[in-house]
């Protein structure tokens, strides 16, 4: 198992990656399995979803929820780094790394949908599009052997847009929350979901184009 190397790794900015260097060393020293970190990322996402859900009652949770989303991203990065550093990377680990990530997307956006700050229709479509972008990325890996990460609305960008929407929402102190707002009025959280949806459409399109271009380059771009 220790000789396995993932076919593709998500590009991560070096400064962000360096924040986990100390944690990687500790995890390797204490023999923390990377699967545990993957499950912790899902727990952070669940906590973020709960905070979003309850933020209609306690608006200050709009500050906390995005921080938990970023903790989810950090754990998503850490598990892969620990797996490689400890020699525990495996094909099974690819599944454990990917599936909790999709559950995390659902937990977060369901919490947003029921927060009262956003039209639930928009939040659920943001969740659907988040899953679709990830699906197309893994589809690329299935047919070309390389995971696709192109596009403007990858996982980290979705969390940033959601965080900005939440913090603007808190700054505006909209009262009462969305559930009682006039029909047709768009909140900062509504706009965040719209940006995510549109960005995901662009991301899916770009990834599909890259996949098809690579297949054509191999002479495999014919009809099914």
Structure report:
By secondary structure, this protein is mainly α. The protein has a single domain, classed as CDP-alcohol phosphotransferase transmembrane (TM) domain (Four Helix Bundle (Hemerythrin (Met), subunit A), Up-down Bundle). The chain has eight helices and no strands. It is globular and about 50 Å long.
Q: Superfamily at the CATH H level? A: CDP-alcohol phosphotransferase transmembrane (TM) domain
Backbone shape: globular
- Count of discrete alpha- or pi-helical segments spanning 4 or more residues: 8
CATH class: Mainly Alpha
The number of distinct structural domains comes to 1
Strand-residue proportion: under 5%
Using only CA atoms, what is the Rg? Answer: 19 Å
């Amino acid at each position: 198992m220790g000789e396995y190397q993932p076919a593709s790794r998500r590009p991560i900015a070096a400064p962000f990656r360096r924040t986990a260097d100390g944690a990687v060393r500790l995890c390797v020293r204490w023999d923390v399995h990377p699967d545990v970190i993957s499950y912790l990322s899902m727990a952070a996402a669940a906590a973020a979803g709960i905070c979003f859900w309850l933020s209609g009652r306690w608006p200050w949770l709009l500050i906390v929820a995005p921080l938990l989303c970023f903790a989810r991203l950090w754990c998503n990065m850490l598990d892969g780094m620990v797996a490689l550093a400890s020699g525990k990377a495996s094909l099974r680990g690819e599944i454990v790394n990917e599936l909790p990530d999709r559950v995390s997307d659902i937990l977060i956006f369901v919490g947003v949908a029921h927060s009262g700050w956003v039209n639930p229709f928009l939040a659920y479509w943001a969740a659907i599009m988040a899953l679709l972008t990830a699906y197309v990325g893994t589809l690329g890996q299935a047919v070309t052997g390389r995971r696709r990460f192109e596009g403007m609305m990858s996982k980290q960008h979705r969390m940033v847009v959601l965080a900005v929407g939440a913090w603007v929402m808190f700054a505006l102190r909209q009262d009462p929350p969305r559930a009682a707002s006039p029909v047709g009025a768009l909140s900062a959280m509504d706009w965040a979901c719209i940006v995510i949806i549109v960005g995901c459409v662009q991301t899916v399109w770009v990834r599909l184009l890259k996949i098809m271009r690579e297949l054509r380059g191999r002479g495999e771009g014919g009809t099914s």
